[in-house]
Amino acid sequence: MNKPKMASEKGVPSNSRAQILLAQLEKLTGDGMVRDPEMARQITSKLLHLIQTQEKTSKEVMSKGTSGMEVILSSLESTRDIPTILNILCILSELLTLGKGRRAGVFVSKGGTAVLLRILISANKEFPPNEELMLQVHSLLAKVGPKDRKLGVKARLTGALNVTINLIKKNLQNVKLLLPCLQVLRVYSANMVNAISLGNSGAIELMFKIVAPYSKKNTSLIKVSVDALVALLKSKTNARRAVEGSYVSTLLALYLDWHRNDTWHRHTVIRKGLLACLRNVTNIKLGRRAFTKADGMRILYNSSSECLSVRTLDPLVNASSLIMRKCFPKNRLPLPTIKSAFHYQLEHVLASGPVAQRYSQPPGGRTQAQLCSEPLKKVDDVVDDSDDNEDTEADTENDTENEEDEKECRSLNDDIEKDINKLHPQKIPSRPYEELRVYEKFFVELSEDFQGYNFESPTTSSPAQSAQSIVVPTPQALPPNHITAPTAQNVSNASAPAPTIPPLQLETSQFGKDFNTKEEAHNQPVEQDWSQAPEYVSLNADEMRVKQKGSPISAPKPTQSPLLLEGIAIRCLAAGGGGSDCGSEGGEDEGSEGAVLEVPDTAQLLPLHDLDLYVEMVKGTKSVPHYTEVAYPDYFGHVPPTYRESLLERLYGVQRSKIFQDIERLIHPNNIMDKVVYDLDMPSCPVIESDGESLRFNSKFESGNLRKAIQIRKYEYDLILNSDINSNHHHQWFYFEVSGMRVGTMYRFNIINCEKSNSQFNYGMQALMYSVQEAISGRPRWVRTGTDICYYKNNFARSSIATGGQKGKSYYTMTFSTSFSHKDDVCYFSYHYPYTYSSLKMHLSKLEAMRAPEIYLRQDVLCETLGGNSCPFLTITAMPESNSSDHICQFRNRPFIFLSARVHPGETNASWVMKGTLEFLMGTSLLAATLREAYIFKIVPMLNPDGVVNGNHRCSLSGEDLNRQWQNPNPELHPTIYHTKSLLQYLAHTQRAPLVFCDYHGHSRKKNVFMYGCSLKETIWQSNISAASSDLQEDLAYRALPKILSQIAPAFSMASCSFVVERSKESTARVVVWREIGVQRSYTMESTVCGCDQGKYKGFQIGTRELEEMGAQFCVALLRLKRMTGLHNHQHLLDLESDLIGTQPKVVSSCPTTYVMDEDEPSFLEAVDYSAESNDDDTEVDLEAAASAASIATTEDGGEVPDRLSDAESNNHDAWKSEPVTSSQ
Ligand SMILES: [Zn+2]
Question: Cβ contacts of residue 332 below 8 Å, gap of 6+?
Answer without folding.
Answer: 381, 383, 796, 797
